[in-house]
């Protein structure tokens, strides 16, 4: 337990240093700060992974079921995707924006208790079906977060080009076409994960292992359906109507705000999703 707490605090500190390094690079085009931030981020990923493994052994289950664990796993997924983007796509500022979100998630997790589930909830929630549901949902959210970061970069770069702000910094954003295609590709991968996760959640809730019933007009249900509809509309506009550009980047950004509201707020009024409170 003490080791986990030390690792958690050290992770927060190193993550903050990494984000600060990327921020300095963003402001000053400082390659040394970028490299240092990357190595801090790599250490953060190792520490996060160790923390998750220790917690799994401590509670003898996958650490995904409490609000604290959900946010921590979400942040871990963001760091993982950031490292992959850094290796394979080399869009420097995308890594920065992704980790602003990832660090925010880690920071929010500080406000949630780190205790295990109560024995009653542990009996209900320790289910392979539910764990798969949670895993798919969080991974889809991580994918949508990457798409959101691409959209933010697109909007910023579009404004810079409009104002004729040329320079080295502009080159490190990636091209508008690259950001648009990457945002679309990530959203296209994340959407089926979200859809499968929601379906598995309904199946679990109505199974013998679950709560037996899910009210259709529950805020969590409505919020999840709203996210599916919103991103479904985005994919329809892109795939069928062939739309792209500034408007679609703005649409994708709004979709993430809907997702964030569903993740952080709707559980407060949910009558069945109460373990997320």
Question: Would you spell out the secondary-structure blueprint of this structure?
Answer:
Layout: H1 2-28, H2 31-59, H3 67-88, H4 92-109, H5 119-125, H6 128-162, H7 168-171, H8 176-206, H9 219-239, H10 246-264
Helix pairs in contact: 1-2, 1-4, 2-3, 3-4, 3-6, 4-6, 6-8, 6-10, 8-9, 9-10
Structure description:
One of its GO terms (cellular component) is plasma membrane. It is a multi-pass membrane protein. Residues 69-270 form the Cytochrome c assembly protein domain. The structure is a single chain. By secondary structure, the chain is mainly alpha-helical. It has two domains: 1-116, Four Helix Bundle (Hemerythrin (Met), subunit A) (Up-down Bundle); 117-277, no CATH class. The protein has ten helices and no strands. Helix 3 (67-88) packs antiparallel against helix 4 and helix 9 runs antiparallel to helix 10 (246-264). The longest helix has 35 residues, at 128-162.
